[in-house]
Amino acid sequence: MTSQNNYCQFPWTWLSVNLESDLWRWCCKVPFTPGFQQHYPKTKRLDEVKLLLTENRRPSACKACWDDEDRGAISYRIANNGEDPSVKGLRYVDIVLSTTCNMKCATCGPGFSSQWQGILQTNEKPPEFRWLIPQDKNSVVDSEKRQLALTKLLGTIKQHAKTIERIHVYGGEPSVDPTFVEFVDQLLEIEFTNKPAIRITSNGNF
Fold first, then answer.
1. 37: CB partners within 8 A, 6+ apart
2. What is the b/e burial string over 172-206, where b = at least 16 CB atoms within 10 angstroms of the residue's CB?
3. Could you report the per-residue pLDDT of 46-96, keeping only the tens digit for each?
4. In 19-120, where do the E strands start and end?
5. C-alpha dihedral over 150, 155, 23, 109, to 10 degrees?
6. 117 near 99, Cβ under 8 Å?
7. 3-state secondary structure of 8
8. Taking the CA atoms of the chain, what radius of gyration do you get in angstroms?
9. pTM of the model
10. Cis-peptide, bond into residue 118, ω within 30° of zero
11. Residue 51: helix, strand or coil by DSSP?
């Protein structure tokens, strides 16, 4: 009888950063952690998750995947080959430059669109959009902290230039962010060992 493989590579290979709020996480299935600029990558929570995974144990932070697997569904971990321990190093970087956007698409919401945020701040929420949650204004950091987080992010990407395979930039609408062009230029100047796929999610209306 073999024990179940509970390992997941994403705490080592995946990084998502919201520069507007200085938040970060290691998987789309876990909540964001505050303080990317100050704390990443050495945090007690992340260290505990890595330790438990290397011991083939289940961290509570990864409950979404365990719940899926316990009911016989395919979890995000399994669907994306996350249980493969041979994959090492930071591979995937997702970046939210800001939530500033020039549209309010029906598929979006206030977490990713300033247009949606404006509607919810000035109008009573329509019944069909009661599921929308306004963004907390206090979660947005000042320009100095944002720049520090951006500088740290670029340094992190350079540090892992040998292993990164994909960089995904989105928002908001990234093209209307004043730091967008310079940021992309800085990405393109990095000497990656293997050219990563640099993806930019845009509404194409700018």
1. 22, 145, 148, 149, 152
2. bbbbbbebbeebbebbeeeebeeebeeeeeebeee
3. 999 999 999 999 999 999 999 999 999 999 999 999 999 888 899 999 999
4. 23-25, 33-34, 92-96
5. 60
6. yes
7. coil
8. 18
9. 0.86
10. no
11. helix
